[in-house]
Amino acid sequence: MKSKITQIMPTVWMVFFSIAFLAIAGRFLYIQVSGEVAGVSIQELADEKRTNQFTIPASRGTIYDRNGMSLAQEHVVYRVYAIVDEAHTSNPLNPKHVKDISETAKKLAPILEIEESDIAERLKEAVTNGRFQVEFGSAGRELNQDQKEEIESLELPGINFIEEPIRFYPNGMFASQTIGLTDKQEDQIVGINGVEGYMNDLLTGVDGSISYQRDKFNFKLLNPKEVINKPENGDDVYLTLDQKIQTLLEDAMSEVDKEYNPDRMTAVVMNAKSGEVLALSNRPSYNPNNLGEVDNWYNDVIATPFEPGSTMKIFTLASAIEEGVWNPEETFKSGTYKAEDYSRTIGDHNQHRGWGTISYLEGIQRSSNVAAARLAYEKIGPERFLEYLKAFDFDQKTKIDLPGEVAGRILYQYTDEKVTTSYGQGSTTTPIQLMKAATAIANNGKMLKPYIIDRTIDHDTNEVLTENQPEVVGEPISAQTASETLKVLETVITSEKGTGHNIYNLNDYTVAGKTGTANFVDPETEKYKTGRDSYVFSFLGMAPADDPELIMYVSVKEPELEVTESGSAPVSFIFKNVMENSLRYLKIQPDKEATEPVQVSEIPDWQGEDTESYVNELTKMGIKPIVIGDGDKITNVNLEAGTKVTSRQKVFIATDNLKMPNMTGWSFRDALIFRDFMDLDLEWLGSGYIVKQSIKKGEAFKKGDYLMLELEEPNNNDEETS
């Protein structure tokens, strides 16, 4: 039996191995013929394993001002990483991985500003865990070109860089809530607010890709089968903002913020003929390049309704003129007013004393609440007045091309609300709604839609994709009414009885406008806040008065005022600096008598020039510089060569023998420019224009000296409170 089994087993094993061999050979033959294993192509798998594929990021579109100045752009930074896998080094004489961990950590630590031990620990942990490469956290990201070059100069094996795009804002805190911010989501820059968010789809491009085959050392093959899909870059957005006007606004608001520490500020400048927003800013604001702690994310100009106060009387006046019930010579008893027996008594801003029996024209000039209430409730009638409010779109959003707009609300259910709305209390509005309504006053009765996006441009071809045009969205009053309203509003500035007299006058241009001093509700007590500074002080002005080119609105909430200061001081500082200089910059012809035409010139280079020759050169250009001292040699000029200036801007020339100029009559802004130029230790009393200086005219001084100034505002009347 045993012999028989012994004879059979070799045959069995031979048959078994033959079948196995045939199966394996058949499998190999099948794989060779079909090129597949378990439905997976061997060739495709091999290609995939030896193919490198990288994304070619598309550039995000740039946001420009109206003249092509970059406001938000893509900026390249670098991320550093270390290759720790020895297999990456093919030639020991030319290492491609981190060879000396201690040396690498020691040299990287001061540049990345992290502990040497932390770097060493990261590298050792990566080696222990068999990782190919390692990064250094947030400290190793967003490195600038200088940092990259400093690390490269160390010639550390295994240290490499990846280019990364970030969003960069060249002007820092500049229309920040308007331009907006971006966030990095899944390695893509995404707009989250402002224009960045509103136009995100257009600004965002489509990434491309590149692939090629490589060997095990990660080098391209001789025939790499390279495939490139080019990226589609994002398109560009041009805003209506003007970088120069916006800078004037930002500078003025920053000065007021520093001096008066207000709770809130808003300001906006608009082209009266088109509805284009030329400048817009808020405080608090933020620097998008370095956020830190942000106190205010909202674009208050469009997103924060409030009770506007007496600026609303502009539209009460216009409604009365349009309705045919305005008689400037008609008189009324000022002081207090009670619309109905059951309604509450309202009063004028001077503790309800009023000014006796006065004309309605004087009532508007003095910003009488009683005058506005009588016009709306008795002359126009409450229901008809409501129709005018709606015709001015005070119950609607302006539909400005920005995200987050919130409309104000017309409170008009009860008699008291119908009365107080006439002078800006109770009902709410936003600054942009006031500006939109004001375009009807400034533009012959035609109300314009405000807009901030001028055009969009294809980034690669420069083809214009879309372009906005002025849009008339209503005609609440006639051209004749608009003209008459402007004439009345001009007297608010020119009349000695006007609340804007000697406060909002410009040097070369007439102004039509209305002051406002509005109450606001304290969120803690849910009652109107009281106190001398507890108001929103504002001004809505248009210039030149007879045919406005620019409209500007400024509001300052709860400034910290000196005992002798009025609430108009911070508001007028912003309005006058921005409006006067903007009109000059735009080459709007001055309309006041005995004014010279404004010329714009470029500052010439002063290097190598003696004082007398350089002063003569500026004088021929219509510029009258202020020479600081009597030296023959120029040591500095406050403006760089090529800077465009008007003949009325102050140009300071420092000589090698410094002597104090006569500062009498200088504005506070001029004093600050002089302080910064001469690096002086400056203190001041009062506000307005300089009347005294501690270092007398002609006295020698040096940089860093102490200088005390006394300033005074022109005499003005009591302000109104609504």
From TrEMBL:
Family assignment from sequence similarity? Belongs to the transpeptidase family.
Its source organism is: Gracilibacillus kekensis
Keyword Repressor appears in the UniProt entry = no
Catalysed reaction(s)?
Preferential cleavage: (Ac)2-L-Lys-D-Ala-|-D-Ala. Also transpeptidation of peptidyl-alanyl moieties that are N-acyl substituents of D-alanine
> Where exactly are the transmembrane stretches of this chain?
12-30
- What would be one Pfam family of this protein? Transpeptidase
Q: Where is it located?
A: Membrane
| GO CC list | plasma membrane
Q: What's the protein called, per UniProt?
A: serine-type D-Ala-D-Ala carboxypeptidase
PANTHER family (UniProt xref): PENICILLIN-BINDING PROTEIN 2B, PEPTIDOGLYCAN D,D-TRANSPEPTIDASE
- Hey, which pathway is this one from? Cell wall biogenesis; peptidoglycan biosynthesis
| Listed EC numbers | 3.4.16.4
Q: Where is the PASTA domain?
A: 654-713
The record's GO molecular-function terms, alphabetically, read: penicillin binding; serine-type D-Ala-D-Ala carboxypeptidase activity
Q: Which GO terms describe its biological process?
A: cell wall organization; peptidoglycan biosynthetic process
